[in-house]
Amino acid sequence: MRRATRRRFVRGSAAALLGAAATVARSQQPATVDLLLVLAVDASGSVNQARFELQRQGYADAFRHPRVLAAIRSGPARAVAVTMFQWTGPSMQRWVVPWQVIRDEASAEAFADAVEAAPRQLFGGGTSISGAIDYGVRLLGGAPMRAPRRIIDVSGDGWNNGGRPVTAARDEAVALDIRINGLPILALEPNLDEYFRENVIGGPGAFAIAADSYETFAAAILNKLVLEIAAAR
Per residue in 113-133, pLDDT tens? Predict the structure, then answer.
């Protein structure tokens, strides 16, 4: 092989290797989505199995709804990443649906199917909203995706009665640029929405949407997901 030809071959090989390395590096970068959303589902003792099923089906139906998919597609990345866990007492949380990226009908249906298939893993142990927030923060810290917005969405039917003060957990999460939204269920405590607004939700644009009962949970979670996913909020 002539020297000039050999030099061109070496340069070409090096460029090919650099191109391949860049491709691998890009493939190893975390996916970017518009929102990282943690769904924290109340499974405390006040939530009997019928009430739990209404919650679970409400979430599943919401992610199959065209309004939620339209909200997802309204962002620059046209995708969000969502995960779900069940919670009760201060150290009682179970991660039941791992992080999944939702960008189209198929991925939305896959997430809804995963929600429906996730068995209830907790049945009592108090009501620690602070523990739920702390656990949500850890899930966000370990998320395999990146996003400009991070939200923990807490549903529950009672006041914080275990673990550290809920305001402390909320304030620490907000300091990490995490928003806390709430879905208080008023079946047992009619003024729970006021408690959530004063003690649970936090961060710029944070809000709570109340469900008057477990029977109206599905409508509340649909409206709530549309609002918190939409890029305008």
Answer: 999 999 999 998 899 999 999
